[in-house]
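ok so i was messing around last nite and threw this chain in just to see what happens. nothing serious, just curious
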Amino acid sequence: MKRFVTLLLLLLAQPVLAAMSLDKIIVYLDDLPNAREDIVVSNPDQETLYLQTEIYRVDNPGLPTEKRVRVINPDEFRLLVSPSRAVIPAGENKRFRLMPLDRNLEKEQVYRVTFKPVVGELKSEKNALKILVAYQVLVFVQPEGGEFQVSLERQDAQLTLANHGNVNAEVVTMEYCQAQECKPMETRGRIYAGARLLIEDEWVDDLTDGFFRLRVRGREMKTVELPL
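result:
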């Protein structure tokens, strides 16, 4: 008797396995009419790829109350993905278009879109294990003129980076500087609008002078200096 086992992996990283690849995994969109962005999905495998998409709305991103809600009801769709399903022959690719319906946002809306392979016919009479790898794209729909505002705050004995802007900011590198000398730090990560990032380097807790220099990425890379 033919048996079939499917293992589904969900990754938010640059594709490293065969069977499917995406040309981008982070997308920025404006809350304006006709805003759109395309994602190209390639199938380098020797088998046909059957693909479907799923849309998740991220509520309160970066906060303890963060929730990912799958959007199923057509009346609730504020982000469109076209097509929602596709068949990609071996060695070919397919373009998927993302279009936001959000308008006049005060703060960016975050979505995650899963590109998930589904099982095709398994041509084997033996036990088989087929690994299907799904990829998730992070989508930011941002207000016109949106910007991040990263500041340094003390909470009890800890230092945190707070984002008081209305779009996210990703801390790519961070260093502590005093006079002309700078020391690299391990703290990095994405700070969503209204959220905070704990500075995890333990040796900084008692610092009283100098400043932190950050390389922060939104739609563009910026250098931010925050005095202690």
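not much to say yet. Residues 2 and 126 are 6 Å apart (CA to CA).
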